[in-house]
Amino acid sequence: MTITFPDGFLWGGATAANQIEGAYNEDGKGLSIRDVLPHGLQAPPTEGPTADNLTLTGIDHYHRYAEDIALFAEMGFTVYRFSIAWSRIFPHGDDTEPNEEGLAFYDRLLDELEKYGIEPLVTLSHYETPLHLARAYGGWRNRKLIDFFTRFARTVMQRYHGRIRYWLTFNEVNAILHNPFTAGGIEAPRQQLSETELYQAVHHELVASALATKIAHEVDPANQVGCMILAVPRYGLTPHPDDQRKAQYEAQLDYTFGDIHVRGEYPGYTQRYFRDHGIDLEITDADREALQHTVDFVSFSYYMSVAEAADPAAGERGGGNIIGGVVNPTLEASDWGWQVDPVGLRIILNDYWDRWRKPLFIVENGLGATDELIDGGPDGRTVDDDYRIAYLNDHLVQVREAIADGVGLLGYTAWGPIDLVSMSTVQMSKRYGFIYVDRNDDGSGTLSRYRKKSFDWYRQVIATNGGSLRD
Prior knowledge:
InterPro entries: GH, GH_1_N_CS, Glyco_hydro_1, Glyco_hydro_1_AS. The protein is of the alpha/beta class.
């Protein structure tokens, strides 16, 4: 029997405003935390914007969005995930009135999507906390950010009522434990922050997320709200029970955030973790009531898996394992050290479905690689990215198998359908797209767009609803 994707399955791609838009200081936009991170996660923030920060101009999507969306439509996208830059709507984050020019930009973007019948999937906070909130309030450590965020959420949900049906609250909400400035606007080195501070900050985000879900359903009962989780399967490095328990333990720390979004309360294993580690959070009765506003679906990113070892000296700490774990010796790795594991995607889909019984949505998956622009293709220049085609094909085959397993899946948005500025390294050379953007790590380039070989491959996948995938 031929296994197919369900009718109505949503196919598309995903981006973030801070990685593509540019125009960091145009039309009333304020600064975001990404505007002071010219060297990514490995260096401290700068005082203000600097000329070497590729994020400031991105790929100029702010001025070229119509051209880019037309290319997405040519591939056959039925959904496009993007984020609304908080500081484009509320330049400081704590403003009492929104910036009309910022709201109008997303009106125009939605006009283009509607022209082609592409469903918008919108992230409210994709590593884009307004810089003022980070520096004047201490980021998400401060409970006041809940009100600022819900004001932002209500503003855009009312403005785009009936135009946006699918919403995500916080991108990779569990990442704050690993990258507190990027994910939580907390401008302090990770090693200087206590676990109580980090979990209190993410608690504030969880409450804000739940309240945004409540607002979405009040504004329009047809709205569908999802959480967004960084998904990383964790395997025991060996069959030894201690390694297996270590893998389970680390996985539970990841599950915490989905469990709260779906079930509306902190799970018992998390409460034990807090007791064992002396973590004492301020959780009010109002917070507990707010958390009862649970999500309609669970979305996640998937790029890699890791292995876990009970012995701290066991295994190799790979450069790509940015959220812990050790290198799995059975897997190959990408140019940036991220271990390639298509079967892990099937595992996580089954795991999440069995755990939460909520519709799932893969909203990030892709291969960051070094591409070479050569002569050829419909635009005169192209990239023979067979390695990207193989990566995505193998992952989508496993998605198809998970659907056959009974997993309820809404759609798939490949990360970076067009080359964009890397979040972790602030490079252009780490390319994900089906569309090549002529921009280099030193900022040079014409910004011209070129269809890669994978462009037509993905167009065929969408046109056949996955039928063209190769086992």
